[in-house]
Amino acid sequence: MNPLTLLYIEDDVDIQEIYVDFLKEYVETVHLANDGERGYEMYMLHKPDIILLDINMPKLDGLSLAKKIRETDKDVQIIITTAYAEQENLLKAIELYLVKYILKPIDFTELEEALNKAINELVLIANNGEPQREIFCLDENTLWYKDTEKLYTNENEVKLTKNERRLLALISSDENKVFTFYDIFNHIAQDNFNKEYDANQVRALVKLLRKKIPKESIINIYGEGYRFNPLNIEICKEQN
Predict the structure, then answer these.
(1) Can you give the pLDDT at residue 232?
(2) Which of the four CATH numbers 3.30.70.3290, 3.40.50.150, 3.20.20.80, 3.40.50.2300 does domain 5-126 have?
(3) N or C end of the chain: which has fewer CB within 10 A?
């Protein structure tokens, strides 16, 4: 797949600023708009893969905008946010084939789930319906199930801490990407705004995770960060 782009349409600039950095952990580029009409202009200009938009916006409300986009684009992934759980809006949203309908204030975990769901759907579209790789073989005895975020050794589940699970989920999201210390820190500290960046915390977390998985499954790229390094699934089949 090509690098993903996202259009975030929200009339409250302060709210928008809170989530921009988080969104950039999942997509290459984030475009911004602050009303429905400008949002549609940005959509036509950039044709993003994912749209995150609020229902209550000036000039053109979110549901009307989503409906207008859906008339010609069935593939773009749309996530809607709203401060009110109105039954009428929920029913209209169902008709628009949305990824998720999220109530404000936006919970980071819920937004993360929506983004992952949208990305997985885009992968299916890009692969003509073939699912993305969800099971990673780390050695002949160790498997990482990315979809359920569970680790097994000799068919026994290995208990992971929340941060160990987040780390493994992040780096397994792209086998070809080197995740910087800052990328990893931001991801594991996503629900703690006041936590100050500390690369040593990332190193310590990687060290702890390596005690539960084959050490070579996470490669240290000197001066950059870390990259995921699973075995080829066919090699695993041969070994088993």
Answers:
(1) 63
(2) 3.40.50.2300
(3) C
